[in-house]
Write a structure and sequence with these properties.
Blueprint lengths: L2 H16 L2 H7 L2 H12 L1 H8 L5 H14 L10 H11 L5 H20 L11 H7 L51
């Protein structure tokens, strides 16, 4: 195993060890998710995360300090792009804005979209079900070629609508009706 692979393993382990229930209760889960996306996106991230005494809590503190300096009254807000920049600066990334605009923001958004499960879709419950169907779920956004099995809208059960509650001229389906159908 080469130096870079060792750094990646070390950085991933460091993130997973620090990402505890106590940390999530106080700071949320966005910083670990962001760091894992950055780790997958840029080889330099592995070196910066693994080296030194930088921690997840330190990155959270950098964002919190920025928010407290820029608050209005008792309200504070840090846009996601600025929060990413602060985390990258904390870990020692040179020109963090260039990294974000160079594709890291897109990577983070795609990883977040891969974790999204629309309401009503089913996910395989076990690895056995996954391998039987011939697909594999996405794990930590590591392989863009893997897909996840979801139920299509046509396969989902429709909920019966009581005839009393359904209006005669249902305007929710306006795109399917002509003006003549509405009596206009």
């Amino acid at each position: 195993m080469g130096y870079l692979e060792n750094c990646k393993v070390s950085a991933r382990t460091k993130i997973e060890l620090e990402d505890t229930e106590k940390f999530r209760a106080e700071c949320g889960d966005q910083i670990p998710k962001f760091l894992l996306s950055w780790l997958d996106y840029d080889d330099n991230a592995a070196v910066l995360i693994a080296a030194g005494e930088k921690t997840l809590y330190g990155a959270f503190k950098a964002i919190r300090d920025y928010a407290s300096k820029h608050k209005t009254g008792s309200c504070a807000y840090v846009p996601s792009e600025k929060a990413m920049e602060l985390v990258l600066e904390y870990f020692g990334q040179e020109e963090p804005q260039a990294v974000i605009e160079g594709g890291l923001m897109y990577k983070v958004m795609m990883d977040e979209a891969a974790r999204f499960k629309p309401y009503g879709t089913e996910t395989p419950k076990s690895e056995a079900e996954t391998t039987e169907s011939g697909t594999k779920g996405i794990e930590n956004g590591t392989d863009a070629q893997e897909t996840e099995t979801v139920t299509s809208p046509s396969e989902q059960k429709t909920q019966p609508v009581a005839e009393k509650t359904k209006a005669k001229n249902d305007l929710s389906a306006l795109n399917a009706l002509s003006l003549e159908d509405l009596g206009l």
